[in-house]
Amino acid sequence: MSRFNPANLERARELLTHYPRAKSATIPMCHLAQEQDGYLTEEAMAHIAELVGCTNAEVYGTASFYEMFKFHPVGTYVVGVCTNISCLLVGGEELLDHASGSLGIRPGATTADGLFTLEEMECLAACTEAPCLQVNYRYENKVTHEGFDRIVADLRAGKRADIPRHGMLGAVRQSIPADRRAGVKAI
Amino acid sequence: MPAPTKMISTRWDQADGHTLNGYLRTGGYEALRKALAMNPDAVVDEVKAANLAGRGGAGFPCGTKWSFLPKDIFPRYLVVNGDESEPGTYKDRLLMERDPHQLIEGVLIASWAIKAEQAFIYIRGEMPHAHERVAAALNEAYAAGYIGKNICGTDWSMDVVLHWGAGAYIVGEETALIESLEGNRGMPRLKPPFFPASKGLYMQPTVVNNVETLANLPWIISNGAAAFTSFGNEKNTGTRLFAVSGHVKNPGVFEVEFGTTTFRELFYDFCGGIREDRTVKAFIPGGGSAPWFFEEDLDTQLDAGVVGGKGSMLGSGAIVVMDDTTDMVKAAWRLVKFFAKESCGKCSPCREGTNWMEKIYRRILDGEGRPEDVALLLDVADNISPGLTWPPKQTTICPLGPSAAAGALVSSIRRFPVEYDHYIVHGRPIDGVSTGIYRPSLAPAS
User: Fold this and answer.
1) Neighboring chain B residues of A52 at a CB cutoff of 8 Å
2) What does the alpha-carbon distance between residue B293 and residue B296 come to, in Å, rounded to a whole number?
3) What pTM does this model have?
4) Alpha-helical runs (H) found in B169-297
5) Is B86 in Cβ contact with A23 (below 8 Å)?
6) How far apart are CA B337 and CA B318, in angstroms?
7) pLDDT tens digits, residue range A55-111?
């Protein structure tokens, strides 16, 4: 797995048509590459550099600024527990501790079976639903310790079809039909 | 007791409120048709007359921001700031997930008003559901002729593009957002010389508006500025969304008339009071950046000028309540840690200072605090934000570092010096307070 496969290359080329300058498509293309491979490979970044017309280092320079991009394989499910202020006040640290014990890994690590990566997250914009966590950026609100174990058990049992593997963004994508497009002018 | 006033959250409980059918059935896109029959400058004037303040945090008047665009320089762009990540803030995601067409209609009205060549909706990366809802709505709106070529049968054509963020708080700052949208690291630009209105995206005139700000536009155009200003008070018009979280019985997001309700009413009437009927020790009135308020401030109106006059800000409508059991050193550390982690690294005072402050907090919380540590924290903070006043002075390009210095850190030290001293002398919090379980040395590296 490395460069864009034909289907994703087509989507990457479509992304280029959304912007007046090609380089603006860098971050969406990084998401696309991460969706394809589960993380951002060097080959994918080289391919993106070719497509947007910059150096490989510039793509890496941009991508490495953003927390969602991973440069090594991570678990099928990245579990991010919020410990910022609103969650802290109602048990965020305890939830992270429980998650760590339950999965048998410290935050930042991946389980031996490659299924889970645990992360400590900053504010996820679900403050009234604290304590909250995300599994591959899908929200779980007001999570109890029992609730956490249930989520993990369900994921292991393949019962959470609503949570795709890591890297998958929204199931619905913007697609601008050719006959409706106003036409983006290059600048 | 004041009641919520629904102006922009009317479709949140409507099962199909996020679909085009559900939107059209409830008056959707009529404001756009009305705006398109108006001269763009008349739309700007209407929004100016409505006195719509920006809802992203700074509260700058939207119509005035638009009027900074230089005449006759094209192309120009509208960028929608949907990178909601200020600690405690939870409103834009709801607006995007539950009523995406309202946002899109606002985007179109704004684009018409400022004669934008193209609009970009920049949504925080960690919100795939918001992406899905906005993408679906954009696809519907394109197919139905509300976006794209010949909008609503007129000669006007423009594209609206959904853009994905990838996890960086600083991108909420408008010039950092522009850098990110150009495919770069999200680092704020030095201003002056160039402000986005004159040289923004691709060095062209650009307006960056918050999601909630734009969501107000359909209502304003449909009902008129006079009707809009009948809500709220003289300087705070319309409604605001406030997310109340922390130690209240029923946390929630409430839309209330701007400038009318008090914090006490919000906590006790809307949220059912403080958990276990405890007392309020402190609360954050406007997001993780804001200086804290205390029990004596409960009767303050949710009025931007009044809150500002008392040395804090309403910011992004993020209110976090801390009861009398809260460990203030721990709470302040979490906020300082957030800024240390999210510092983009461009300016030395912030990059170095926030991290040094966080490290000093760590040793205090670990029971290894030194007698001089509180003075040292204040000294480092003063180097990021001289004088430690509010609004903060800056030795940096953007307010991120100064918020870390002049917000939670200073508020907690000034109000609760005893709690810091107790940690430093005894290595643990004062009796009766406890928040969380981690000592930083045991906490994971992040």
Assistant:
1) 183
2) 8
3) 0.97
4) 174-181, 211-215, 217-223, 225-229, 263-264
5) no
6) 18
7) 999 999 999 999 999 999 999 999 999 999 999 999 999 999 999 999 999 999 999
Instruction: For chain B, say whether A134 makes contact (Cβ under 8 Å).
Output: yes
Which CA distances in Å does B409 have to B62, B290, B399, B405? 31, 10, 15, 6
Q: Would you call A106 helix, strand, or coil by DSSP?
A: coil
Angle at B280 between CA A126 and CA B87, to 5 degrees: 25
Backbone conformation region of residue B367, classed left if phi is above 0, alpha if psi is from -120 to 50, else beta: left
Three-state DSSP class for residue A80: strand
Interface test with A, best of B118, B120, B146, B150 (most A CBs within 10 A): B118
Which of A86, A138, A175 lies nearest to residue B245, judging by beta carbons?
Answer: A86
**Residues A73, A39 contacting (CB under 8 angstroms):** yes
- Which among A89, A108, A183 has CB closest to B246? A89
Q: Where are the beta strands (DSSP E) in B58-185?
A: 77-82, 118-123, 159-164
CB pair distance less than 8 Å for B436 and A179: no
Q: What is the ipTM of this complex?
A: 0.97
3-state secondary structure of B243: strand
CA proximity to A89, closest of B406, B313, B265, B434 = B434
Of A71, A74, A131, whose CA–CA distance to A99 is shortest? A131
Q: Is the pLDDT of residue B321 over 60?
A: yes
If DSSP codes are grouped into helix, strand and coil, which group holds residue A96? helix
Residues from chain B that touch A170, judged by Cβ atoms under 8 A, are: 128-129, 131-132, 135
Q: Does A26 touch chain B (CB under 8 A)?
A: yes
Tens of pLDDT, residue by residue over A12-59, are 999 999 999 999 999 999 999 999 999 999 999 999 999 999 999 999
By CB atoms closer than 10 A (0-12, 13-18, 19+), residue A132 is buried
Torsion, CA B408, CA B410, CA B411, CA B414, rounded to 10: 150
How close are the terminal C-alpha atoms of chain B, in Å? 44
Contacts 24+ apart (CB under 8 A), A89-93: A89/A130, A89/B245, A89/B246, A89/B247, A89/B320, A89/B322, A89/B326, A89/B331, A89/B435, A90/A130, A90/A131, A90/B246, A90/B247, A91/A130, A91/A131, A91/B436, A92/A130, A92/A131, A92/B436, A93/B436, A93/B437, A93/B438, A93/B443
CA A37, A41, A46, A52 torsion-angle sign:
positive
* DSSP assignment letter at A127: G
| Residue A87 vs residues A116, A142, B203: alpha-carbon distances, Å | 22, 9, 40
d(C-alpha A69, C-alpha A48), whole Å? 14
Query: What local confidence, expressed as pLDDT, does residue B1 receive?
Result: 61
